[in-house]
Design brief:
By secondary structure, the chain is an alpha/beta fold. The protein has 2 domains: 2-150 and 257-276, NAD(P)-binding Rossmann-like Domain (Rossmann fold, 3-Layer(aba) Sandwich); 154-253 and 288-304, Dihydrodipicolinate Reductase, domain 2, CATH 3.30.360.10. It has helices at 15-24, 29-34, 38-46, 66-76, 105-113, 129-140, 155-163, 181-195, 255-272, 279-297, and strands at 2-7, 56-62, 80-81, 94-97, 119-121, 145-147, 170-178, 201-206, 212-219, 224-230, 237-243, 247-251, 303-304. The N and C termini lie far apart (42 Å). Residues 54-134 form the Gfo/Idh/MocA-like oxidoreductase N-terminal domain. It holds the Pfam family GFO_IDH_MocA. GO terms for molecular function: nucleotide binding. It comes from Sphingobacterium phlebotomi.
């Protein structure tokens, strides 16, 4: 049995509740709704017969506010709330850093990485080149670091990938999502690049504005990817692939399925002793994410990758 610790919590990110429930096979819908995540309670209830990962259990939880940690523990059946996140070291086999504030990821991951505790880090892994370089160096030294958006495991994207050949040579991909580039751009990138089997990007350009962020990525194949993150639209994740012989719209809705498969892949990785997702794929997407920020900061300059 793989014993896991989970670390939360960043504002608006319900993953510590969701992922702990998916792994441990239990949840308190009233508790989750009361703290502000009724949609999470709804999809857990709809999928309760498939909750639980038999090979793993979340045994420890830490949040900067103990009250939140105790709420997560109560909802998900986590046995121990620790006073300091490093108290998990020696008690768990691996750690999930379930926060989406990338500026804090190096500092929070470092105590675990330095002693060889396998870690999964919520998206986006980083938002600066210095942090990319730090994680890459740790991976080079043989440390276990896994990070991605769960969009990589979205069932809708898997179906699109198996049907992609029928579209012919891909010329254009468009993607639309709600919220901001910093935290949600990785969702669109992960969805697109997983379907296309992680092609090589050669440039990125931010041509939008705050609350209406538009990013253009050019691939080495000549294909264009247009990514749109709009703050004030209805919540959605849509990707459309346009080929020379056909097109396909992918409407991504099944959060539960992608989260469950993501957690299963992490547990399998811990069992096998190394991440099943190559870090270079994550690193490539972080380079695009940061490149778009650099482009925006420089007035929309094209950034070569």
């Amino acid at each position: 049995m793989i014993k896991l610790g989970i670390i939360g919590m960043s504002e608006g990110n319900a993953h510590p509740y969701s992922w702990s429930s998916i792994i441990n096979g239990q949840f308190d819908g009233d508790e989750i709704s009361q703290v502000g995540y009724p949609a999470v309670a709804t999809y857990l209830e709809a999928n309760k017969e498939t909750l639980g990962i038999p090979e793993a259990v979340v045994t420890h939880v830490w949040c900067q506010e103990r009250e939140i940690a105790e709420s997560i523990a109560h909802s998900s059946g986590i046995a121990k709330v620790v006073n300091n996140m490093v108290d998990m070291i020696g008690e768990v086999d691996a750690v999930i850093l379930g926060r989406d504030d990338p500026e804090n990821h190096v500092a929070m991951a470092k105590p675990f990485v330095e002693v060889g505790v396998p870690i999964f880090i919520d998206k986006p892994l980083v938002y600066s080149q210095d942090d990319v370089d730090w994680f890459a160096a740790q991976v080079e030294q043989g440390n276990f670091i896994m990070s991605c958006s769960s969009m990589r495991y979205a069932n809708e994207c898997r179906i699109a990938k198996q049907e992609l050949g029928a579209l012919g040579k891909i010329e254009l991909v468009t993607a639309v999502g709600k919220k901001d580039w910093k935290k949600y751009g990785i969702h669109l990138l992960e969805a697109v690049f997983s379907v296309l089997d992680d092609p090589r990007p050669i440039s990125v350009q931010h041509i939008g504005e705050l609350d209406k962020e538009i990013v253009h990525v050019r691939l080495d194949s000549g294909a264009d990817i247009m990514l749109h993150l709009y703050q004030h639209i209805s919540g959605t994740f849509q990707v459309t692939f346009f080929g020379q012989e056909g097109w396909k719209l992918v409407d991504i809705r099944n959060s539960y399925s992608m989260f469950r498969d993501n957690m299963i892949e992490f547990v399998r990785s811990v069992q096998e002793g190394k991440p099943r997702l190559c870090f270079k794929k994550t690193q490539q997407l972080m380079t695009i994410l940061i490149g778009a920020k650099e482009s925006y900061d420089q007035g929309g300059r094209v950034v070569l990758l």
